[in-house]
Amino acid sequence: MAWSDYMEMAAKHSKNSAQHWFRYLRKDIGKCGVSFSKQEVEKLYNDEKLTPFQRVSIKAAFNEGSETQKHIVSLNNKANLNMISSIKEKYGKINSP
């Protein structure tokens, strides 16, 4: 499956969820950068199958150093288990009887 076909499928599956869309983008943007040409990104940006949000986020995600790209790269990092445990503990006490 070509990258553009994959991203069209991803756009269709995540049309109503920004979080889901960013998960697809996370697979394409790693710590080492993007391995796609500007022409491929522009073709995807101009694809009518994408929602306006998806188009804007594509443009931002593939711009080196943008906040959107930094956020997507951070999604590739492992979760800090100590942080998760402390949040569960904190909010678990609120929900306790």
State the domain count: 1
Largest sheet: 2 strands, antiparallel
Overall pLDDT, averaged?
77
First-last Cα distance: 52 Å
Assign a percent range to the helix content. Answer: 55-70%
Adjacency order of strands in the biggest sheet: 1-2
Point out poorly predicted stretches. Answer: none
Q: How do the helices and strands follow one another from N- to C-terminus?
A: HHEEHHHH
% residues in beta strands:
under 5%
State the total count of DSSP E strands: 2
Overall shape: elongated
Q: Given the helix and strand composition, which structural class is it?
A: mainly alpha
Supply Rg: 17 Å
How many helices? The count is: 6
Structure overview:
This protein is mainly α and 97 residues long. It has one domain (3-95). It is built from six helices and two strands. It has a two-stranded antiparallel sheet with strand order 1-2. The longest helix is centred in the last third of the chain and has 15 residues, at 81-95. It is elongated. The model has no long low-confidence stretch (mean pLDDT 77).
Give a short overview.
The chain is 66% helix and 4% strand.
How are the SSEs placed, and which strands pair?
Elements: H1 3-13, H2 18-28, E1 29-30, E2 33-34, H3 38-45, H4 52-61, H5 67-75, H6 81-95
Antiparallel strand pairs: 1-2
Keywords:
mainly alpha; 6 helices; 66% helix; two-stranded antiparallel ribbon; 97 residues
